[in-house]
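Hey, can you fold this one?
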Amino acid sequence: MDYKENILETIGNTPLVKINNLTKDIPALVLAKYETFNPGNSVKDRMAVKMIEDAEKEGKLKPGGTIIEGTSGNTGMGLALAAIVKGYKMVCVIADKQSKEKIDILRAVGSEVVVCPTDVEPDDPRSYYSTSKRLAEETPNSWYVNQYDNLSNTKAHYESTGPEIWNQTDGKVTHFVVGVGTGGTISGVGKYLKEQNPNVKVWGVDTYGSVFKKYHETGEFDENEIYPYTTEGIGEDILPKNVDFDVIDGFTKVTDKDAAVYTRKLAEEEGMFLGNSAGAAIKGLLQLKEHFSKDDVVVILFHDHGSRYVGKIFNDEWMKEQGFIE
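Sure. Predicted structure:
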């Protein structure tokens, strides 16, 4: 009989799917690494389980413990699934700009959810960074995950996502394009692919209101670049340790409006029902088209599922309120 021992064993080995319509003007073969096939419907399942397993080995996470993490939703989901299977409690700290669906889904899988304001500085005691750390200090037998600086995040993608992409393309991949948030995906996959072939180009997709692109190009952390934005799951107002800028060849920035509109286009024109960062990623790839030739194989990674954005991106009223559609 062919079966898995538990839901965590279904993580990984996600398909590569050709994009056909939105990339008509691009001469290269464009393939999507379709991470919604993971059981928590996002790429974050991979690093969630890796971070937990490494914490168990290091004695940081003990039986009956409480896992505490600040999350935009997807890492929390992956951690919550692992917590159920492994017998831990889960507390997710989330910013109030995240979709209601994400908060409801986390509660549905047994997590306690603490909602914090978005429009505060990272070191403000109300921010979701500060709140996560404080809860970890106050809660007995708890472990604060810290996906931004926990290098098991990058390691998960170096060990699984990178090799999968290399093998699925028979080593023919020439470019990797992905939205950057904590940095684990781009750094882990990028490092692995460049070790196999140093000529592989790695492109990060950033958002306006985030510091990554300017920092990569100038080495300056410009606080004037930071302002609130609606795109979920990419961009940061901090420099996470998981972002290895040496692995990244360049960034392109995508507006909130384009990210939202192209998330809808993926659903309507490709049948790909995906999250907000996928729209940003495909628009970023289109902005980079002069970098691709007919012999190239471009892999773009799509992080999460459209069901988490039904009340926002796929809601006409919300889109009108934001000025994203007429």
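The CA atoms of residues 35 and 43 lie 5 Å apart. Let me know if you want another pass with a different chain boundary.
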